[in-house]
Amino acid sequence: MQAIPKETRERYRKLVDTVNHYRRLYHVYDREEIPEAARDSLTKELAEIEKEYPSIVAADSPTQRVAGKPLPQFKKVKHTVTQWSFNDAFTPDDLRDFDNRVKRFLKEEFGDAQPTYLNELKIDGLKIVLTYEKGVLAVAATRGDGEVGEDVTQNIRTIESVPLALSRPIDIVVEGEVWMSSKNLERLNAERVKNGEPLYANPRNVAAGSIRQLDPAIAASRKLDCFIYDVARTSEPFPPTQEEELTYLRDLGFKVNPHHAKTDTIEGAIAFWEDWKKKGRHQEYWIDGIVVKVNERAYEQSLGYTGKAPRFAIAFKFPAEEATTVVEDIVFQVGRTGVITPVAHMKPVLVAGSTVSRATLHNEDEIKRLDVRIGDTVIIRKAGDVIPDIVQVVKELRPKSSKPFVWPKRVDACGGDGTIERVPGQAAWRCVNKESPERVRRMWEHFVSRKALDIDGVGEKVTAALLDAGLITTFDDLFTLQEGDFLELEGFAEISSKKAVEAIHGAAKDVPFARLLTALSIDHVGEETARDLAEHFGTLEKLKDATEEELIALDGIGAVVAKSVHEWFKDKKNTAMLERLLKEITVQKPQKKSGAQPLKGKTFVFTGGLESMSREEAGERVRALGGSVSGSVSAQTSYVVSGESSGSKLDKARSLGVQILSESEFLKRIAG
């Protein structure tokens, strides 16, 4: 028997207890203390340990049973057909492995069987089991532990899409998913805001909680909906395929999700997943993946079940925006304004479709709030290309030897003696040495970036090489470089040197005033603040002469920003550099807004990728029509525009009841 290391055995036992705890909260009590994707991630780690050490498998492992037990205050219902849960796939290769298993299992009975697959959307709701006797709804039950569920018949009867009587008097048991639309969640949250009640985070929890209300009138007021997707038992002959089974259900009077597709190969199923991964968030119901089923019933019956799941079907999850991993170290990065950001170095983990090993911890206060420590198991969240955040520590898995993290008194990356200081009135710390090499590098990276001067071909590596060679010190130096200067750098030849100089001089022509302000790395001046300053003052000369009082009077500019801008322009070293820089570049005055301003007073937030334009271009269109753009969602946000692979901003918009626009709806609005 393979020896199991002590630390592995301890980690495994903690994982079993922790996953069972959170699954019980989720399935039985409708409490989601950690995201479903995080539970999946912990379960996956547990399964990997079991795969490596088969003898470690515990009888109470979540991989060995269907989760949850019925609540004691509900009447218990014993299912006439055992309710199974699906195994999960997370990558296309996982799905190909499923296809190979299916074909290997079928080979003995059917030879070289070539099953087709029916692909359905995996609705993120509450599973329900409906029993009809002679065509009339007799019992509606939750899944419970798979053997025994809860009788919620009176609440299910309030859902209009659930037929009370079928089109013919048959005995049948069917399975489906109860869900709440995003619009109804917005409506419900709007009412809760008026009543001063806490907001609901997502429609899945509301649907589950509504079905478990003792008063059916509450369930009725929630306007729930239901899709039916499977026949567990029927007094009539079973349809020969899954595809025909959905038609059969629809003919009986059940609401069936219209978005399903039969594919001849597993590659077709992967294509279906890729398609819905992009547009899944634009539906009125939440989707967390697809379900891939062997289409032929004869094959299904031959494949049968394992101890906990069908062999003929699998849930193919969308890339999770949350996952769990272990913090291996906490290091410090110096930003372009000298502010220090703690970054967690973690065991690599797949999240939101890519492998990550870094997550920002923001500042000292955030580390204290989370109580994150080296060695902790943490939940990370990632949306799009943004560096992940650590959102929660799974303290049940904390090593006994862990110690609270202590904020340092000095940081080597600050240069000199590494001394740091707390920024007055903020949670941030910064380097005392304003000329620290790391800060200078970050400033130069920002200066040439797309959001600033946008110098194509002169990026992070090139500016670092120029700094190391002593060819640039202040921003104006960049525009005095000649081709021969670049030839001194490794990897540069005559042609590439010429292109670099051309790119620099090309960027120097007609630099928008707002972009120049963004590029200068003035504390607290980002893109939006730079635009506000440029539009109000019009020229550098006027901005340079502005008093703190004049700056504070500007809408959106607070006392901290005003002081920072005023002090930057009063620093003789800065103004001398700016004077030299203005001899090398041409600053384009901001165009005054003209014509109608139909979006005046409206704030837009963009999340995910847009097909017809970049998010920057979309923002410019909004500003041209008098609106403003923000990087975060709040109760003051007017609209959230949701594109491909939208992230946590979309979830927050739903929880706050902020109106969500698809890309096509946004285009219609700005066109109108």
Architecture overview:
This protein is α+β, with helices and mostly antiparallel strands and 672 residues long. It folds into five domains: 56 residues, Orthogonal Bundle (Helix Hairpins), CATH 1.10.287; 240 residues, DNA ligase/mRNA capping enzyme (D-amino Acid Aminotransferase, Chain A, domain 1); 101 residues, OB fold (Dihydrolipoamide Acetyltransferase, E2P) (Beta Barrel), CATH 2.40.50.140; 152 residues, 5' to 3' exonuclease, C-terminal subdomain (DNA polymerase, domain 1, Orthogonal Bundle), CATH 1.10.150.20; 69 residues, BRCT domain (Rossmann fold, 3-Layer(aba) Sandwich), CATH 3.40.50. It is built from 24 helices and 24 strands. The strands form six sheets. Strands 12, 13, 14, 15, 16, 17 and 18 form a seven-stranded antiparallel beta sheet that branches. Strands 2-11-10-3-9 form a five-stranded mixed beta sheet. β13 and β14 form a beta hairpin. α1 packs antiparallel against α2. The longest helix has 24 residues. It starts with 5 loop residues before the first helix and ends with a helix. The mean pLDDT is 88.
